[in-house]
Write a structure and sequence with these properties.
Number of helices: 22
Radius of gyration: 28 Å
Oligomer: single chain
Distance between the termini: 71 Å
Amino acid sequence: MAPLTKTTSPKDVIAVPGSMPAATWSQLEAYLASLPVATAAKLFTALETDRQHTVQSDQPDKAAFTSQGMPYDALMAVLRQRLIEEERMPTARVISARRVFFALFEPFLTPMRKGRKRVGRIARSSLSVIWQFIITHPLGKDAAATAKTFDEALAGHLSTQALSDHQDDLRGKMLIALGEAVSAIVELTNEDTAERQRMTRLFSTQLGGDAAGAGAVLDLAEIAQLVPQAEVFRLLKSEYPKTLSGFSEEAIFDIRRRYTEVCQSDPDIAIYVLVYFAGWLDAPWQAAHLVYAYEGMSDPDVPKLSDDAGVLMETLFVDMESVARALEQDVGFDLETGTAGAAFIWFADFANGLIDAARANGDGVRVNRAEAGRDVAVAALVRTCDQAKACLHAVTPRRPARGAMHLSAWCPDLEAEISVKTIEMAKAAGTFLVGVENISASLQRDVGGALFIADIRKEIEQYTEDVILEIRVSEGQVRERAKVLMAAVLDATKTILPEQTHGVLKARAAAAALAS
């Protein structure tokens, strides 16, 4: 099958670590995001290695520090986004027992909890506390020992290096031991209310909230359900890659056969054969074709197939709507101009994919639902444009004009200092605004992007005219400050101004500086 064009995923929303004040985390996040790429890559690898060794430590105090004091997952998430944006994500990542085990459930992992717990959605933020709970629990003693042996066997090796026959054997024993431990722990917590409450309190403390803790408990229970069918998902992963142009009749039949086999052994798990595609494909909306192939299908061998297909579609829509709400909520924070455009395009592709599938099958109800999500994203786009405009206003500071005849006038504030960060944000905002018309086209909504850009360009040109006038008529330090301001404005606005206009303004500023 012909591959789809790879689509850029939206920037993950990183939750504030529970043990850290929001203001402190905001400063740390900004610092990590500003690191040079080479430094970020080295720090990412160091954190990954340190986390592996610390979590595996036999020292209880150190292990507690890992789960509560050092927010490895949050720190690495920021660095991972930075490296992905720069296309410098390390290709060889440290392999470990923990990584090998959770890789079994990769199609069901989601960056963070969005609303209530849903079928086939395991929060990555839960994995650290779940792993620590398993290997430190009395019922996980054997699993911890095999995991430690496996890690020791891999010491000094990278994930891209093939495992030896001996290591393959260790891997199999480790996965069996971990699966048995998870099943035993979940069975115990289902029977022992006190043990379940202890686990919930522990997870809530480590994840910084009751909702997150309760979600992690459900994630652990779901992992226990999925372990016996891990081989099914491994085969699906090998046969159905992330990039698919669609599902052929043969594929639809084969997936239905896999579903039937699992349904006969464990009806409650069969739904995951379908939900798998919503979490694995680079274009998850392609999974909508499976829904329409199976919905309404009457099959006495698998009477649940139609209902489970509906669950898959609900998962797709909730995922799409979560992206729309994230776009809406992001407006309340500092503009992430570097990733905002990609996030809107990703949403547009998602919504369009669902709408196209629904229209092709005459499903007006789902078309309307997807259109409603698109309306939310469009409103967020308009507000994001206002944020971008504010970033550009930050590099055009003004003050009231002095003098009795100009009490209501405003002129450039030559004493204002414009930071490097402010300039970089303005550049990114300009790049975002230039792409707004393409985003609007993808969303199939006209938000007046052309007029918006024309207005902001007019404001910038008028401002630079005023600064050029200040350069021409001023002397000494005042002229020098005007020249510095003009250089900063020209640097910050070169992504939003047409190249010819930018060149003319730069030349006029240079000529004004030569005036006697």
